[in-house]
Amino acid sequence: MSRSLEVLKAIYKPYRYTLKGKATLLETTSGDFIIKPKRKDINELYNYLISRGFDHFPKLVDASRRDVNVFEYVESIRMPKEQMCDDIIDLIASLHNKTSYFKEVSEDTYKAIYEDIKSNISYLKNYYDTLFEMGFSEVYQSPSTYQFLRNFSKLNAALDFCDKELDNWYELIKGETKTRVSVVHNNLALDHYLKGNREVLISWDDYLIDTPIIDLVKLYKKEYLNINFAECLERYMYKFPLLEYEKKLLFILITLPPELKKGDSEISQCRYNNQVIDYVFKTEDLIRPYYNTEEENS
Prior knowledge:
By secondary structure, this protein is of the alpha+beta class. The protein is built from nine helices and ten strands.
């Protein structure tokens, strides 16, 4: 990228340039531009999205170079996180609505998903069981160990729920020959939403054609501590109703607890423990109303 960046500096003649992660902001007298390493043919994606009536992405100024893309720079206003979540949900529901279609698949497609998630559940069960046995065997337990042991049953219950619901999901879906797919941003986060003169989503480099729930899973796992996701989920499903098998899979994937990070001190370990425990409790609160409703209707 460094060679292309030097060439672009000579072309655009910036009076200032700023590194922003892997991107570079060029500020010039004729406008501001973002230079990003090229990973996929974003131009092809953009053309497709425009054909479907979706243009909420930064304009691609120059895609002719082999290793970088040049985008317009979008200056975003500051706004409350809850409002940002509502706006990003509206955009992603619109994206899924405008690009979704049913794709033919073989029965092995669902079987592979089932086996992959089953393997992940089994791994997490063994992982947390091992941590429990190690902690329980300690004669003098540290605060972080005691904190983990007290909440182990919640982690175990979450994994049992995933295991049972995965079997229910597979019974519901096996034998189907089609599945709904759409363009999936695959990197949703609040800081990837910008609102200036118009609304845009940035960082499309990981986009997929896959099940729409991937975007909800990614957004939830990144932002569950920052927002009330229950309102966002309700808003999304009003604008883009999920099919029953999609909803089940969504709840399985978001209920799977993350692995516990290893802290370099007792304080940091307690903090990491609390993040995982908080995730489990928040997720249980998020999905419980949907299952209560199903039980009342059955």
